[in-house]
Specification:
By secondary structure, the chain is α/β, with parallel strands linked by helices. Helix 3 links the parallel strand 3 and strand 4.
Length: 236
């Protein structure tokens, strides 16, 4: 029986962030999407998701969703049959990065959430192309719909997240590490570092994409996910 594929979107994103892949994979797999919107710590978010996940599933996490996916496999490795990490990081916020989030949270509380969302995802984090403005508009609309309280919870969770490098070394399921070549938030070298730490991981770089490859290069990402889902569950 094929595993259910569970998509975990990134910060201030909903199921639309994986819309093309949800549509493509649903022809052959059971699929679901759980945004990381409940809880003020990554551990709390992961714990809540474990109550919603199938008994065993394939996890696809982007950005913050990838960080939650790592916490899920850290605490419940038997629940994850395979793992895809997209444009994310296993590292904790540095003190400087954590401090930089505070003024953005203050601005968001004063009614400037849309401005803050633009700062969280600047245009240059996506690859140039005819649809970049449309993708940015979709990303910012997702954030606006989720709203202030979810932004504050997610920002606090990111500030407090743990380093997961030790978790990477213990993963014993098929892993795809995928990123956009032009992602300026989480660069290719960081993904190569992640893939090197995970036994048997596959690294795939999408040349025509930045931080949102699932929307910027939807067919390439769907193909990569299908190849990952076709890998045998037992690593050699």
């Amino acid at each position: 029986m094929r595993e259910t594929v569970v998509f975990l979107p990134g910060m201030m994103a909903d199921a639309r962030a994986f819309g093309p892949q949800l549509a493509d994979l649903s022809r052959d797999f059971a699929v679901m999407c759980i945004p990381p919107t409940r809880g003020e710590r990554i551990e709390e978010i992961a714990s809540g998701m474990l109550d919603l996940l199938p008994k065993r599933c394939a996890l696809v996490g982007h950005g913050m969703g990838g960080m939650v996916a790592l916490e899920i496999i850290r605490r419940a490795p038997d629940r994850v049959s395979r793992l895809a990490l997209m444009d994310t990081s296993p590292l904790a916020d540095t003190p400087a990065q954590a401090a930089e989030r505070d003024p953005r949270m203050v601005r968001a509380r004063t009614g400037r959430l849309r401005e803050v969302l633009e700062q969280e995802l600047p245009a240059e984090t996506l690859a140039p192309g005819p649809y970049r403005n449309d993708i940015l508009a979709l990303a910012r609309d997702m954030g606006a719909v989720l709203g202030l309280e979810i932004y504050l919870r997610q920002a606090r969770a990111l500030q407090r997240r743990r380093d997961q490098q030790g978790t990477l070394r213990k993963i014993a399921v098929p892993v795809l590490v995928l990123c956009g070549a032009q992602d300026r938030l989480f660069e290719v070298k960081r993904h190569a570092f992640m893939a090197d730490l995970i036994p048997g991981a596959t690294l795939q770089v999408i040349e025509e994409a930045g931080h949102l490859p699932a929307l910027e290069a939807p067919e390439a990402v769907a193909d990569a996910l299908r190849a990952w889902l076709a890998l045998p569950l037992m690593l050699r």
